[in-house]
Write a structure and sequence with these properties.
InterPro entries: AB_hydrolase_1 (IPR000073), AB_hydrolase_fold (IPR029058), Carboxylesterase_BioH (IPR050228)
Number of strands: 6
Distance between the termini: 26 Å
Strand order of the largest sheet: 2-1-3-4-5-6
CATH superfamily: Alpha/Beta hydrolase fold, catalytic domain
Domain AB hydrolase-1: 11-231
CATH topology: Rossmann fold
Keywords: Hydrolase
Strand content: 5-15%
Structural class: alpha/beta
Helix content: 40-55%
CATH class: Alpha Beta
Protein name: Hydrolase
GO molecular function: hydrolase activity
């Protein structure tokens, strides 16, 4: 690993996402060494964290969206001395409940996988994306096309691997309690996948963290309200 000449910000995308989810931030944070991580077909949060640590310099800031936030927490658990700043966007921290309580999530995720295998990734994405953005943005053709095109770039095999990672995700409660770097918790107010209440619970666990609520945004806050998200990231990086 070599140390970047400028501050490095590692950007971790969520389920079926890639650099498109961070595109506006990559443009607006051009003065930083921003690197979007590709998890490939890694099928566990642990394996994804390995990829981040292999690609990152010795010291870096870390921002994860959705599934990427869970990976970011695992990266911090493994190498807290390397993480200068931590941002968790539209994400969660709890493991899937054991037994019958966790069955509905598994069934819903596998139903989407079956649709992707049967009809293709884009067809699945048209259903899945309905709950991913603020309801008013469903009529935004450019935004929705960007999301659907991103999903269509993926394969059912990759989808299956990432579903496995999420279903088997570890509980990160202890990690949140251990945080000792500037920490941003950011969420779209209308995020129905990872709601505000979950981020408020995370803020209560994480000492000294800052909670930022992005108005008029759902789960895809970085794409829905990029300027507001970038402003929050700037303030966090300056802390």
């Amino acid at each position: 690993m070599t140390q970047s000449l400028t501050p490095t910000l590692m950007l971790l995308p969520g389920l079926l996402c890639d650099e498109a989810v961070w595109q506006e931030q990559l443009t607006d944070l051009h003065d930083l060494d921003c690197r979007v991580v590709d998890f490939g077909t890694a099928d566990s949060i642990s394996a994804m964290a390995d990829i981040v640590l292999q690609q990152a310099p010795e010291r870096f800031a870390l921002a994860g969206h959705s599934m990427g936030g869970r990976v970011a927490l695992e990266v911090y658990r493994r190498a807290p001395q390397r993480v200068s700043h931590l941002a968790l966007l539209d994400t969660g921290y709890e493991a899937r409940p054991q037994g019958a309580a966790g069955a509905p999530e598994r069934q819903k995720r596998l139903a989407l996988l079956e649709q992707a295998q049967r009809e293709g990734m884009r067809a699945m994405g048209t259903v899945w994306a309905q709950g991913m953005v603020h309801p008013d943005r469903l009529r935004d053709r450019d935004l929705m096309e960007s999301i659907l095109a991103m999903i269509a770039r993926k394969t059912p095999e990759l989808f299956q691997a990432q579903i496995r990672a999420l279903l088997d995700r570890p509980d990160a409660t202890a990690i949140l309690k251990s945080l000792h770097c500037p920490t941003l918790l950011l969420v779209g107010r209308q995020d129905s996948w990872s709601p505000l209440e979950r981020h408020e619970a995370m803020a209560a666990l994480a000492p000294g963290s800052v909670l930022s609520v992005i108005e008029d945004a759902g789960h895809m806050s970085t794409m829905e309200r990029p300027r507001a998200v970038t402003a929050a990231l700037r303030e966090w990086l300056d802390s």
